[in-house]
Prior knowledge:
Elastase, domain 1; 4-stranded antiparallel sheet
Amino acid sequence: STNQDRQIERIFKSLEDTVIRNGQAMPAAELESPVRLEVTEPPALSSGELVTVPVSVFDPDLRTMQQQAAPDSAWNSLEDYPQPLQYVEKQIQVLQSDGKFYLANERVKQVDALALLPTPAVGAEPVRDTSSILPPEGVQSFSDVKAMQSAQLGDNAFLQLMAFYHLDSSLKYLSSLSYDLFEEPLRFDGRGLALDNSSYYTGSRALMLGVGGVSPDAADADVILHELGHGIHYQIVPDWAYGHT
């Protein structure tokens, strides 16, 4: 691997033993003991039909869209942003089931994260870890198309729409290149972590986005696609620790 100056820092003798622990090369912890997630799922696709609707999102993010220069000092809230909010209209394919609309299709689906489930030690009881997970909010649903179209930054639903659109678009693009890497819809929660950080969990093939900073991670497509990148790398080379991608 190289540093930011493109100088070689590490040469790996193995694609499996990629970390040093107590002087010994061994597999990374996330491959030895992958963390799984407990989630609430949306209705099955077989319960309804897929429909295409227009929604408003940022692409890729508000500052880039508006060519807004970096501030002299940090913005501490949405009110500090100097321009009116601007959106672009995009088409998404979603599930209509039992009179409601859900962010789910054959490629990606929104879930509500409830807890992390680390792999227990041999003989130990499983432990639910909720310390970094937002309180349950339920799977995002919409009563009608208008409710989807009216979601804006500041609404919980907007973050889920952002993550859904950008993940789905990227997976469709990969498929157009004949890369069908995921055997089932990719799970995500645009409001999954109560942290200023986001993660891809290999154990559940799930992407969780954080809301702990001034700007939630799902408001920026670059963050969404960064985490998707970890998932793509894992699907291509599953014995290569995603921290090294």
